Amino acid sequence: MTIAVYPGSFDPLTYGHLDIIQRSSKVVDHLIVAVLHNAQKQPLFSVDERKALISEVVSGMKNVEVDSFDGLLVDYVRERNADVIVRGLRAITDFEYELQLASINRKMNPDAETLFMMTNNQYSFLSSKMVKEVAKYGADVSDLVPPPVEAALRNKFGFQ
């Protein structure tokens, strides 16, 4: 059984993230979407809020689990007995950084492979940071994030 971890901040989950979740869940037996708790960042949504939103969006995907972690990804991967780390790439600019991460992860845990997946072209420009910036001004983000996330963003920024 192949277990994969798709780590990220997911603050908030975008259609780009969802694209990677849907596609990677088809190539592994079990996919864990792991929300990173990073004490150095000030997220818009708490870890619990992000987990709840992702869980709602992926509720129909039977082999997808939503969890959270802090600390080193390789330790979490080892703890969950995962074989694969899934990383999404939007553009060539992401590759250099992701290659560095994959290399250090491989050095620290040679048993875990990194699977790079290119995001669908229609989402190649999309980032959580961009979504938050657009949503902050009340602009329409319905083509950028799933409906539950859109509602949560409107609520966070006071747009009903």
From TrEMBL:
Q: In which pathway does it act?
A: Cofactor biosynthesis; coenzyme A biosynthesis; CoA from (R)-pantothenate: step 4/5
**All residue ranges annotated as the Cytidyltransferase-like domain in the record:** 5-133
Co-factor(s): Mg(2+)
Tell me the superkingdom of the source: Bacteria
Give the reactions, separated by semicolons, that this protein catalyses: (R)-4'-phosphopantetheine + ATP + H(+) = 3'-dephospho-CoA + diphosphate
Where does it localize? Answer: Cytoplasm
Role, per record: Reversibly transfers an adenylyl group from ATP to 4'-phosphopantetheine, yielding dephospho-CoA (dPCoA) and pyrophosphate.
The name this protein goes by in its record: Phosphopantetheine adenylyltransferase
